[in-house]
Design a protein that fits this description.
2 copies of one chain form a homodimer.
Chain A (H helix, E strand, L loop, with lengths): L2 H10 L7 E5 L11 E6 L12 E5 L2 H17 L9 E6 L4 E10 L3 E8 L2 H6 L2 E5 L4 H8 L18 H17 L3 E12 L2 E4 L2 E5 L21 E5 L8 H9 L5 E5 L5 E2 L2 E4 L11 E4 L6 H8 L6 E4 L10 H14 L2 E3 L6 E3 L4 E2 L8 E9 L2 H14 L2 E7 L8 H10 L5 E6 L5 H10 L4 E5 L4 H11 L6 H10 L3 E2 L14 E6 L2 H13 L3 E2 L4 H8 L12 E2 L6 H12 L6 E6 L7 H6 L9 E5 L6 H9 L8 H5 L3
Helix pairs in contact in A: 4-5, 4-13, 10-11
C-alpha cells in the first residue's frame, strides 16, 4: 500500500491526517496549503530517502516545482524507470510534539498498543505506556498517565487540556485494529500533537500471513475450592519424602480423607489404601506425589472415581524437557473438565476446611489473603515468614508448571470465593496474557503482583527454571498497573495486602525519622499531618523539645513509659491507619519493654522497626516468639507500602 | 544588555552563535542567510513576544521585509515609541536538538552548571546533570554520561560522535563564568545541538549586586587524629549519664587519660579531677559532656592547657535555636586553631590507640573503614549492627551540628590517615558545598555516601533535627557521583566499603535465584559467568539436573554436604569476588549445618541469605552469635552492592 492509500485508509478509520494530495509524475504541483513535504510514490521504491525521493519544508509552488524536478533527476541517476502508475504525494507539514503510537504483537499478551514520546527520544527516554486493545477508558487513562509526556496533555503551562482527544485517539486505534483483523502490527510514527489534536504523519502496517489466530476462550470450570473427599496419592511413612509431609499436613482436613500407597499399611493410625479401586466413594480432589512416570495413569484411574480437582506435586515434566506429558495432562483436563494444578508444585491450602495439601509449613494461620506462587521455594519461604509474623491465608496455591490451570483460571476462581479478600501473586513466566489481563480486570479485590525476570540474565534463569516465557518487564508492569494491580518490589510485600495511606511514626531518633520519611514518600504513601488537637494532646505528654511534627520524635532519652503514652495518643487519632514504632539503641532505651507494648490490642496496626544489632536482639526474639511482625531496616519496613 | 550585545559577548568568549545581524529600525533587511528569526531590540521592551515583536521562519528578503513592517505596526498599537537607538536583530534559524545549559547559584554548592535536554521536555524529563564550575574533564564526562540525552553525543544510530565538542562547550562555560565574576546566574536556552556543534540561540544573564563573594578558604588544621593526652570532662559515676558511658569507654585508651568531674572522687578506680587546673600536663584532646551553658568557659579553660582537639557531646545549641553559642565556638576555633567536633554529637573513635570517646557501643572492632555520621542515632544503630556482624572501623566521627569541623575538614584529614582505607558518610544537611566537593575530589579512597532528605517532607524533618539546609537531592547526588563518590540507598550499605564486581550465587531454589539475579543486575553488579572448566568441576559434584548456570541451583534436596562441595568449588574460582549462599526452607534443608560452614576460613567473602522465618531462626541465631553477616531478604542482601 503506498502512502496515499494508507492515508486514505487511516482517514476513513477516523484518524486525523494532514492535508495531502497525489500528483501524477508530470503534473505541475499546485496547492492551497504550505509548507509541504514532497515524496515520490512508487511500489518500485521502498526507501524513498535513499534515492533522493523526499524534499521537505517547501514553502510555495516554485519551491515545490523545483523539488519535483530535482527528485525526478536523482531517481533517474539511480537508474530506476518510473511509469504512469507512479506519482508524487504532497503532505502539509505540521508543527508540534512528536509522539509515537504502535501496535505490537507480543508473544504473551497478543496485540498491545505502545504510545508515548516519539522521534529520536523514543529510544532514549522509553517514555511509553502499554495499552491492551481491549482496555476501557479508565484503563487507557491510567496507562497514559504513567508517561511523563502526558503532562503535556493535561494542560501544561496554561495550554489547553487535551486528554479527551488523546483517549479518543487510542480508542480509534483500538477500533482500527479490531476492524482489520488481518493487521498484525502497525506503527503510526510520528503522530504530531498540537492544539488541533493528533495528526498521523507517517504509518507502516504489517499484515498476517494467516487471516486469523483468535485466542482460545477460557473454559467454564467447576469450583476448585469445593473439596469434600480428598485423596493423597503417594502418602508415605518416610519422613524424608514429600508424600509424608503432605499426608501429615492433610490430617487436619475437616472433610473426608483417603491416603493411598501401593504398599498399603497405615499412616499415623489411618489406613493406607493400596489402590484407588479400594476406595468406593466419589473422590472430588486428589493430590499426587508419586513419580512422574505414573502420574498420567493415576489421573486416568481417578476420572471414573469422579475426580474434578487434581494437584500434581510430582516434578519431572516440562522443567526437564518433557512437554509431551504436559500436553497429555492438558488434553485430559479439557476432555474431562478437570482442574489440574501443577505439575512440579508445592501443593494447595484452603482455610475454611483446614485443608493443607502442601509440603510446606504445617502450621498455617487462617486469614483472608490468597497467595499464588510459581516458585515452590518462594512460597515455602513466604509461608515460613508468615507463620513467624502471625499472618494468615484463605488460600495458598503453588502454580507449578501450569499445564492446565494458569493464573487467569486461579484468579477468576478466587474472585468469586468469599473467604478471599485480597490476592497476592508471585509470577515468573506467564502464558495467555490476554486471559490473564481479563481475569485481573474482572476481579474487584486488591491484587499485588511480584514479577521476577526483569533483567535478561534473570529471564534466562527463570526460563531454565520453569520453562515459561518471562516476557518484557516494562510491558508486564505497565499492563498490570493499568488494570489496577499493585506491582510490588519485594516478595515480602506479597504478605501485606492492605494499602496504608496515612502513616504515623513514633521514634526516639531524628535521623532515622528523616530517612523513614523519605522511604514512605518514595513508596507513594503519606505521613499523617498532626492536627492542632493532636499537637496539644502530644504536648501534654511529651518533653517540650519533641519534634511537634510527624515523625513524632519523642527524644533520645525516651523509655517505654513515654513510648506507651505516645502510642496511646496516636492510636486514638482518627486519620492514622498505620503506626511505625521506630526504635534505635540509645543509652537508656529499654527496647524489650517497648516492644512488650505490642502484646496489647491496639486499634491500628503497629509495626516496630528495630534499628541496630546486638542491643536489639532480645526484643527481636520476643517479637518473633510472639508471632509479631518486625523490621530491622528502614527500607524493609517501607517495602510493603 | 540587548540580544546583539549578549551574542557578541558570548561569541568573544568562545561560544558558537548563529549568524546574526543588527539592523537600524528603518534599514531594509537584506541577508545572505535564511531562514531567519527577526526580533525587535529595545531596552524599552523586555518581553518581545507579548508585543508582537518576534517573527520566525522567514525564508527570504520579501518575507523579512513584510515581518519588519508587521512588527513595527504591532508595537505602535501597544503605544510604545521607538527611537534611533532601537533596532532589529535577525538571527539564522538552526535545526537540531534543543539543549539547555545554565549556571545556578545554589545556597549550598555555589555556582553550578546545569546541562541537559532543553525545551518543554526539560521540565517533563528533568534529564539534566550538575557540573561544578571547577570540575575537570573526567568529572564533566561522568556528569554528562548520567543523562540519557548524552547517547546522542556518543554517536547514536551512526551519527558522528560529538562528546569532545560537548565537553569543550562546558569548559567554555566554566571559563566564561570565572572570567566574569559579576555574573551570578545565566541561562543559555536553547542551545541547539547538531552535526556542526552547539549553537547558543538565546541567553539570559543575571548579575550580582555585590561584585564579589569569594568563599572562605579552608583553614590549615593540625591533625585531629593525633591524641596523646585525653581529658573526659563530665565523667560521671551515674550509669544513666552520657558522662558515665564515655568515661567507661575511654578507659581502653592506650595513651594518657584524665577524667574530670567538678565533684571529684574516683571513677572505676581512676582519680576524678575537680577541675582542669589540677591537671599539669598538656591536654591535646578533650571530650566535653557537661551542660551546654558551661561548654564555652570550659573550652576557654582548655586553651591554656594546649588543647587542639575538642569533641563537644553536649546538646543544646543550634538544634534548639542557640546559634550565638555556635558562632562563639567557631570564633574560638579560628582564633586558637582548634579542631572542634560537634556540639550535639555521639563522640569519636580512633582504632590505633583504642580511643573510644563515644557513648555508643563499648565493643568496637578494629578495621579500616571510617564512618562519619550527622545523626547520633544512625551512628549508634550502625555501630550496634557492625558489632553484631563483625565489621570493624578505623575511625568513627559523629559530626553533630558542625559548628567548626565540617565534612570537608574531616574527609581531608581521613584522606591523609593511613589507617583509613575507605570512608562512609551519612549526611543530612551540609554547609560549604564547594569545600566539601573539593575534599571528595582530592580523596583517593573509596567513599560511600547516604543522603537523607530526598523529599520536601524529609527535608523539613532534617532541618528541625540538625538546623542545616538539606538542599536539592538530585543536585547533591549528581555532583557527588561526578567526583567519584558511590551514593548508596540504605544506611546499612555504609558498613560495606568494597565494591563487588563478579558475584556467584549458590542456592537450593530456582525462584529466589531468579530474583537475586534481578537484584544484582539492578545494583549494577554482575553475575560471574561459569567457564567450561567451572562447569565441568561442578558437574562432577552436583546432581545432573543442577542449573549449569550461575545462580548455581544445586536443587531443592541439597543438604549441607552438597552446599559444602559447591562452596569449595566456587571459592576456588578466580574470577568470583563474592559468594551468596541463598538458602530456602525446603523439607530436607539442614540450614544450621549449612551456615556452620561459615566458621571456616574461605578465600572470598561468603554472605548467607536465609529466606524464610521460623525454620531459619536457629541458623540466624548461630550467625548472630558468631558475629557473621547474614541477610533475611533478597533486597537487603543486594542493598550494599
Amino acid at each position: 500500500m503506498v502512502e496515499s492509500e494508507l492515508f486514505s485508509l487511516l482517514s476513513k478509520s477516523g484518524f486525523q491526517i494532514p492535508p495531502f494530495h497525489r500528483f501524477a509524475l508530470q503534473e505541475p504541483i499546485s496547492l492551497d496549503f504550505y509548507p509541504i513535504a514532497l515524496k515520490i510514490e512508487s511500489p518500485k521504491i521502498v526507501h524513498k530517502s535513499d534515492v533522493g525521493g523526499v524534499a521537505i519544508s517547501l514553502s510555495n509552488a516554485d519551491e515545490a516545482e523545483a523539488a519535483r524536478t530535482r527528485i525526478l533527476s536523482r531517481i533517474a541517476e539511480h537508474t530506476i524507470t518510473l511509469d504512469s502508475s507512479d506519482g508524487f504525494i504532497a503532505t502539509a507539514m505540521i508543527q508540534g510534539e512528536e509522539l509515537f503510537a504502535g501496535v505490537v504483537n507480543d508473544p504473551i499478551f497478543g496485540q498491545i498498543i505502545l504510545f508515548g514520546k516519539g522521534g529520536v527520544l523514543l529510544e532514549l527516554y522509553r517514555d511509553v505506556c502499554y495499552i491492551d486493545i481491549h482496555a476501557g477508558e479508565t484503563e487507557i487513562l491510567r496507562a497514559i498517565r504513567t508517561t511523563k509526556i502526558s503532562k503535556l496533555f493535561e494542560g501544561f503551562r496554561g495550554s489547553k487540556p487535551m486528554m479527551d482527544q488523546i483517549v479518543s485517539f487510542i480508542q480509534t486505534l483500538q477500533r482500527f485494529i479490531k476492524e482489520h483483523p488481518t493487521i498484525r502490527e502497525c506503527d503510526l510514527n510520528p503522530v504530531i500533537f498540537n492544539a488541533n489534536g493528533l495528526h498521523v504523519v507517517d504509518a507502516r502496517i504489517e499484515y498476517h500471513t494467516l487471516t486469523s489466530d483468535t485466542p482460545p476462550t477460557q473454559r467454564l470450570r467447576s469450583n476448585f475450592f469445593d473439596n469434600r473427599h480428598v485423596a493423597v496419592i503417594g502418602a508415605s511413612n518416610d519422613p524424608n519424602k514429600v508424600g509424608y509431609a503432605i499426608a501429615h499436613n492433610a490430617l487436619s482436613f475437616n472433610g473426608k480423607l483417603s491416603l493411598v500407597n501401593a504398599r498399603g499399611g497405615t499412616f499415623e493410625g489411618h489406613r493406607l489404601y493400596c489402590s484407588l479401586t479400594e476406595i468406593e466413594d466419589v473422590i472430588d480432589t486428589a493430590v499426587i506425589t508419586i513419580p512422574s512416570c505414573h502420574v498420567i495413569e493415576t489421573i486416568e484411574a481417578l476420572i471414573p472415581k469422579g475426580a474434578k480437582n487434581i494437584i500434581i506435586v510430582s516434578a519431572g515434566f516440562k522443567e526437564i524437557g518433557d512437554t509431551r506429558s504436559e500436553e497429555r495432562l492438558k488434553e485430559l483436563a479439557e476432555e474431562y473438565n478437570l482442574n489440574i494444578i501443577g505439575p512440579n508444585c508445592l501443593g494447595y491450602y484452603e482455610s475454611t476446611q483446614s485443608l493443607n495439601l502442601t509440603f510446606g509449613s504445617s502450621s498455617i494461620n487462617k486469614g483472608s489473603l490468597a497467595l499464588i506462587a510459581q516458585s515452590g521455594a518462594v512460597l515455602s519461604s513466604l509461608m515460613d515468614k508468615a507463620t513467624q509474623e502471625g499472618i494468615g491465608f484463605s488460600h495458598i496455591l503453588s502454580a507449578g508448571n501450569m499445564a492446565d490451570m494458569g493464573f487467569a483460571d486461579i484468579i477468576t476462581m478466587l474472585s468469586a470465593d468469599p473467604q478471599c479478600e485480597a490476592i497476592s501473586l508471585y509470577a515468573e513466566g506467564i502464558q495467555e496474557g490476554k486471559a490473564f489481563l481479563e481475569s485481573l480486570r474482572s476481579c474487584t479485590k486488591p491484587i499485588r503482583v511480584y514479577k521476577a525476570g526483569k533483567s535478561p540474565q534473570a529471564r534466562k534463569a527463570a526460563f531454565s527454571h520453569t520453562g515459561n516465557l518471562s516476557g518484557d518487564y516494562p510491558m508486564f508492569r505497565g499492563l498490570l498497573e493499568s488494570v489496577g494491580v499493585k506491582m510490588v518490589d519485594s516478595i515480602e510485600a506479597l504478605l501485606y495486602a492492605r494499602n496504608f495511606e496515612n502513616i504515623a511514626v513514633i521514634t526516639n531518633a531524628g535521623g532515622p525519622g528523616t530517612i523513614i520519611t523519605d522511604v514512605i514518600i518514595e513508596r507513594g504513601s503519606k505521613l499523617y499531618t498532626l492536627s492542632k488537637n493532636d499537637l496539644e494532646a502530644l504536648d501534654a505528654l511529651l518533653p517540650s523539645n519533641w519534634s511537634r511534627n510527624n515523625p513524632i520524635d519523642i527524644i533520645g532519652d525516651a523509655r517505654s513509659e513515654r513510648f506507651e503514652a505516645a502510642l496511646q495518643c496516636v492510636d486514638a487519632m482518627e486519620g492514622v491507619d498505620l503506626i511505625y514504632l521506630l526504635i534505635t539503641p540509645q543509652m537508656m532505651t529499654d527496647t524489650l519493654e517497648i516492644v512488650r507494648l505490642l502484646e496489647r490490642p491496639w486499634s491500628k496496626p503497629v509495626f516496630p522497626i528495630l534499628l541496630g544489632g546486638a542491643m536489639m536482639s532480645e526484643a527481636l526474639l520476643f517479637l518473633r516468639s510472639h508471632s509479631k511482625p518486625c523490621f530491622t531496616t528502614l527500607h524493609e519496613a517501607g517495602a510493603f507500602l
